[in-house]
UniProtKB/TrEMBL annotation, chain A:
GO terms for cellular component: ATP-binding cassette (ABC) transporter complex. Pfam families: ABC_tran, TOBE_2. This is Putative spermidine/putrescine transport system ATP-binding protein. Gene3D superfamilies: 2.40.50.100, P-loop containing nucleotide triphosphate hydrolases. It comes from Rhizobium wenxiniae. It comes from the Bacteria. GO terms for molecular function: ATP binding; ATP hydrolysis activity; transmembrane transporter activity. Residues 5-235 form the ABC transporter domain. Belongs to the ABC transporter superfamily. Keywords: ATP-binding, Nucleotide-binding, Transport. InterPro entries: AAA+_ATPase, ABC_SmlMolc_Importer, ABC_transporter-like_ATP-bd, ABC_transporter-like_CS, Mo/tungstate-bd_C_term_dom, P-loop_NTPase, Transp-assoc_OB_typ2.
Automatic annotation (TrEMBL), chain B:
Residues 63-251 form the ABC transmembrane type-1 domain. PROSITE patterns: ABC_TM1 (PS50928). GO terms for cellular component: plasma membrane. It holds the Pfam family BPD_transp_1. This is Putative spermidine/putrescine transport system permease protein. Keywords: Cell inner membrane, Cell membrane, Membrane, Transmembrane, Transmembrane helix, Transport. The chain crosses the membrane at residues 12-32, 67-86, 98-119, 176-197, 203-223, 235-260. Its main location: membrane. GO terms for biological process: transmembrane transport. It comes from the Bacteria. Belongs to the binding-protein-dependent transport system permease family.
Length: 352, 262
């Protein structure tokens, strides 16, 4: 019985500060959606509202046909996995996992059977009698996961579940979480500030900023086609170069950057090009050349990246970061031209 | 390899220990003296002053009152103190800072002033009988220990554990008893012991709140000393000390003393 989660027009305040601004998300049945953003963007607030620990100022939360908005937290039937594990320190691993079943009035024989089965699934059956204090971080988070899954909740929520683990374990655990989530087909909401984690684990990712969703899409679309300057910067489009259209000739548009550098862009590649826009690229999206059609520059600091050299480039349109091929070495101070690679560039609305 | 200790430092340490322990040694010595007046070193050895305590009904009655008041007063202070400490820690961000200080006031105000104000407000103002005023007075006197010591336990309690229980379907009040309370158990016991010892040894509050027919043991000791300057006082003091030591020993055996100093 997988159900969808619908968050509609959610607003929330801490005192006078508005932390969520008319936020809407829907998570399809069985889907895993991540809320991604830096601290203070409202992602945890959203999760806590869905969990019932915070009351929104307006808006509502629905799980299937069930309206959760005014339901107390303990009646919402949501599996939660916390950043700091939040295991019951005075209960054994087995009792931790069985806790939710006990609240549901399930007989102790049944509880033991289901808790044991779930512990086997997360590979911790041999630690059932330990207290949480005797477990490693990864083991603790597995117990927390088992505890949340064993109640077979229609919705699972994760609040930065891997932040306290070391890098290698983080990667292993996120694969494990994803496998369990898919096998159970549980609708899931996942909060993280780690882009790689969000992209690797999610069906779709919502990039949040200042209480709003900037873009909600699949990781592929977010990575290749950010919808706005904020998302572009977030996913690594370091160069946002303001441009103006100066001439149009069919599909070909002549554009000009500050300082007068002119480029010819095809609307067949970029789609419709407005009069004022921003050309966004990653450092890889600009080729450093001796000459050609591009943005003239004086090369600054050079850094060796292994797969390429990275240059800090002074241009009339501001500082730009570009990667140059290993085969063609430029010295700092050299004059060069930055040539955009169309497939790796995005055209975005100017920032306000 | 052993650490070298400067001889002066060693001597100083011995002096400090002497200073701390000498009164106890003197009291124990005096309580065994076979004289009718307090003296040290004891002249001859006897246990008759200990026997004498149990022959004087005033000591028996006041000891009983002291225990009752200490247990009920401490219990009452925990009933108020645990929820207060919980609220102060759980909602720390939303509460003004001075609110926590409010609960320490009984320690900050000179006890004699506190005792007098209790007499004015509880016994005279509210017209309460002696026994309930004693219990209320002692509850207020030891409230700082309840709030502070339980609070220290709660400060290291991770409240997301509470949220985890709630998310698993446990209602908030039940969560408090099944998840929060077991995890602050040590703090509650420590608070009880500190409060109990403070209450049973208290003079300055009790002196205002005791009345005709009802008194506590320390007040009775004072009263006895004014009339008879015999070693009974010393032997009662030794018994009080033994009660304290006994309580501490139980703590040490069950929880370890370190948690009192944490």
């Amino acid at each position: 019985m997988t159900v969808s989660l619908t968050i509609e027009n959610l607003s929330a305040h801490y005192g006078q500060t508005q932390v969520l601004k008319d936020l809407s998300i829907s998570v399809a049945a069985g889907e895993l959606v991540s809320l991604l953003g830096s601290s203070g963007c409202g992602k945890t607030t959203t999760l806590r509202i869905v969990a019932g620990f915070l009351q929104p100022t307006s808006g509502n939360v629905k799980l299937g046909d069930r309206d959760l908005t005014t339901l107390p937290a303990h009646a919402r039937d949501i599996g939660l996995v916390f950043q700091n594990y939040a295991l019951f320190p005075h209960l054994t691993v087995q009792e931790n996992v069985a806790f939710g079943l006990k609240q549901r009035g399930i007989s102790s024989a049944d509880r033991a059977k289901r808790a044991t089965a779930m512990l086997e699934r997360v590979g911790l059956a041999n630690l059932a009698d330990r207290l949480p204090g005797a477990l490693s971080g990864g083991q603790k988070q597995r117990v927390a996961l088992a505890r949340a899954l064993v109640i077979e909740p229609p919705l699972l929520m994760f609040d930065e579940p891997l932040s306290n683990l070391d890098a290698k374990l983080r990667v292993d655990m996120r694969v494990e979480i994803r496998q369990l989530q898919k096998a159970n087909g549980t609708t899931s909401l996942y909060v993280t500030h780690d882009q790689e984690e969000a992209f690797s684990i999610s069906d779709r990712v919502a990039i949040m900023n200042a209480g709003r969703i900037m873009q909600l899409d699949t990781p592929e679309v977010l990575y290749q086609k950010p919808a706005n300057a904020f998302v572009a910067r977030f996913v690594g489009f370091e160069n946002l170069i303001p441009m103006k259209t100066v001439a149009r000739d069919g599909a070909i548009v002549t554009v000009e950057a500050a300082g007068g550098a002119r480029l010819h862009l095809s609307q067949d590649v970029f789609g419709p090009i407005k009069d004022d826009f921003v050309l966004a690229t990653r450092p890889d999206g600009l080729v450093v050349r001796q000459e050609g059609e591009g943005i003239p520059t004086t090369l600054g600091t050079r850094t060796y990246l292994g797969r390429a050299y990275q240059y800090k480039c002074e241009t009339a349109a501001g500082e730009i970061t570009a990667n140059g091929a290993l085969s063609e070495l430029f010295e700092p101070g050299a004059k060069a031209v930055l040539v955009p690679v169309p497939e790796q560039c995005c055209i975005l609305a100017p920032e306000k | 390899m052993t650490a070298r200790i400067h001889p002066l430092l060693g001597a100083l340490a011995i002096l400090v220990f002497l200073f701390l322990l000498a009164p106890l040694v003197i009291i124990i010595g005096a309580s065994l003296s076979n004289t009718t007046y307090l003296t040290f070193p004891p002249q001859g050895l006897t246990l008759r002053w200990f026997a004498n305590i149990f022959e004087i009904s005033a000591f028996r009655n006041t000891a009983l009152t002291s225990f009752q008041v200490a247990i009920l007063g401490t219990g009452l202070s925990l009933l108020i103190g645990i929820p207060a400490a919980y609220a102060l820690n759980r909602y720390r961000i939303g509460l003004p800072k001075w609110l926590g200080t409010l609960f320490v006031l009984p320690i900050l105000v000179p006890e004699i002033v506190f005792g007098f104000s209790l007499l004015k407000s509880v016994t005279i103002g509210m017209g309460l009988p002696v026994y309930p005023s004693l219990i209320i007075g002692h509850a207020l006197l030891v409230l700082p220990y309840s709030v502070r010591v339980v609070g220290a336990s709660l400060a290291s309690f991770d409240f997301s554990v509470e949220e985890a229980a709630i998310s698993l379907g446990c209602p908030p009040l039940k969560t408090f008893f099944t998840v929060v309370l077991p995890n602050i158990r040590a703090g509650v016991i420590a608070a009880f012991i500190l409060a109990f010892i403070t209450s049973i040894n208290d003079v300055s509050i009790s002196v205002f709140l005791t009345g005709p027919g009802i008194s506590t043991l320390p007040i009775q000791i004072l009263a006895h000393m004014e009339q008879f300057f015999d070693p009974t006082i010393a032997s009662v003091s030794v018994l009080l000390m033994l009660v304290t030591v006994g309580v501490m020993a139980i703590v040490e055996m069950t929880l370890g003393l370190t948690f009192l100093t944490k």
